[in-house]
Hints:
Layout lengths: L1 H30 L1 E5 L4 H16 L3 E5 L5 H9 L6 E4 H8 L10 H16 L1 E10 L2 E6 H6 L16 E4 L10 H8 L5 E4 L2 H9 L5 E5 L4 H4 L2 E3 L11 E7 H6 L1 H7 L8 H12 L5 H11 L6
Parallel strand pairs: 1-2, 6-7, 6-8
Antiparallel strand pairs: 3-10, 4-10, 5-8, 5-9
Helix pairs in contact: 2-13, 4-5
Amino acid sequence: xxxxxxxxxxxxxxxxxxxxxxxxxxxxxxxxxxxxxxxxxxxxxxxxxxxxxxxxxxxxxxxxxxxxxxxxxxxxxxxxxxxxxxxxxxxxxxxxxxxxxxxxxxxxxxxxxxxxxxxxxxxxxxxxxxxxxxxxxxxxxxxxxxxxxxxxxxxxxxxxxxxxxxxxxxxxxxxxxxxxxxxxxxxxxxxxxxxxxxxxxxxxxxxxxxxxxxxxxxxxxxxxxxxxxxxxxxxxxxxxxxxxxxxxxxxxxxxxxxxxxxxxxxxxxxxxxxxxxxxxxxxxxxxxxxxxxxxxxxxxxxx
Length: 303
């Protein structure tokens, strides 16, 4: 009888120990795959892979939808549960998604606070990380032309705009906080515009196919292509702080994923983002490799 009891206890203990060793694997399976969206330019690619890497470091599988589409493609996919997270910008969310009114004096914290409250109230969408840098829209022209004509700010373009063609990304020409805002605030409009993805837009001004572009302030091609970024002297354009957004439901169901993404909170300053973009645009490195090296160097993930 004792022998039977002893064997039974050994079997139970073995099964229990076996069950304990399987727990981490079970947990990883339960975590599932996090789908990450991105917009149509280099910075968004890098941020998407950065997000993926911190999630993978926390035990998640990831699926990066690089270049998924513009603002509304990503945002609607987020709300529909087709993606779980993507990097947005406060000024874009404030003006385009929430359709909030222009402020007389743009304040980064006010825009962030109103965006955070508005997204949650309107769509149940949460900001889980404020990445720490701003990538604003700006108007840029060639440096030699700007120097010749003493152009330093957007209002200086008024005598020339009627004969100028501006190159824009796929959104800036028509979105309310883009060319329509420039027209309303500055009182002039360009003769024509040409839309293209950012890489083509920058190449267009380099090769004189356009006279100005809707530049990104974190893009080092502004310097490499010898462009002058003009001062927004009438405060037309809002601030654009980079943020990660998820649905409230995702956050409630995946607290570990949220904790992982919070590791990126304040991790990237503007100069750093410019250098990361430079690695993509000029050094032609892969966005995942750029993101990985940054995270390892900063001690956010292990190499």
